[in-house]
Amino acid sequence: MQRSGHGQAAIDGMLASEFGWVRVSDDEPQLALFASENSDVDMRKPTIYYNTQMGRYEASAWFFWRNCGGERCWKQDLPFFGTSIGGYDGFGLSMSKLVNRKAQSFYVFTETGVMASYPNPWDAEDSGATFRNQDKIAGPGQQYNWDHGLLVYSFQLRLGCPKGNYKAKTKLGHTWSSAGVSNIQVTTSGVSISFTSSDGYWQATNPVPGNDWYPCGT
Amino acid sequence: MPLGYDYIRDISVEAAVAWFEERTLKCLGPNQPTPDLAEWHCTHEFMDGTTIEARIIGDRQGVAQIIGIASGLSAEDSAGYLGPTAAGIAVDESEHDALSLWAHQRAVGGGLRVFGHGVVVQLQPHSAHRAISITAS
User: Fold this and answer.
1) pLDDT digits (tens, 9 = 90+) for A141-152
2) Do A208 and B24 touch (CB under 8 A)?
3) Which residues of B touch A212 (CB under 8 A)?
4) Which residues contact A157 (CB under 8 A, 6 or more apart)?
5) Contact between A165 and B25 using a beta-carbon 8 Å cutoff
6) In this predicted structure, what is the pLDDT of residue A142?
7) Exposed, middle or buried, A28 (CB in 10 Å: 0-12/13-18/19+)?
8) For chain B, first and last CA: distance in Å?
9) ipTM of model
10) Which among A9, A138, A147, B83 counts the fewest CB atoms within 10 Å?
């Protein structure tokens, strides 16, 4: 661009729009590569329903990527080569009291709603379930398969109906560059995530936890 | 310690900021706590336009006050944020269940309760812009 007469401002504009590189100092030119932050997702409050047909409870939780300017925030993490954004991402839901686990499922959607379902959990316990899979750009529109996601955890209350707060919480782990989710485990204390690298990731907990729920009393 | 305020338990400004940032709030303020009181302002706007905020007032010695604000949320959801999340960093983990239950029971009318280590939690009645204040007694 310089040889064809474009100024530094035009070159900087191209670098910013094409690669996400922004000049950070005029005195000492260098490039800053932006990455997403966990505030770029909406972690929705988990909700619990009773499924009368199945005779069991269903805890469900969503996450949604937000827009940064005119584009989805995950675009800041696009790889230079290939279609995968970092390694595995992970999403999990925990219950604060032990229940009898019946089933769990996880669905991810592109920004236009193309769904993929993951039947096999990474961890499935009486305290919740977690899933770990590869997020990537796919399809003709270069859509992102983890643009939003839904986890459903089905359970029944334990015999004797132990008293206490059956609150649901969620956690999302997102990675880019050379990082990935190596492990994502669930206990009644919450979801804990391990990563393969010391950077190139964040994790997000829902700021509005699931409603306090005392089906067996306090 | 300067006159006029106490510190909330033994929590640091850094720990309070990290607590809110893990819960998707974005915090702005000084890079490091200073000798004098300063404020860190944390916010998250949901895609439906509702917002949650936290104002952390502290210095190098600790946190003097946390104010949580929920705008546009239902009584139950605002209590869910203001109790377990906004006040959760200030209240000892052994009392989190009690904090959660207290906020749940006072989701509409609000109230005041003193938790262990003299942590004073004051929840406003539900409104479109509702706040919680956490200080040390």
Assistant:
1) 889 999 999 999
2) no
3) 80, 100-101, 103-104
4) A57, A99, A100, A166, A215, A216
5) no
6) 86
7) exposed
8) 14
9) 0.89
10) A9
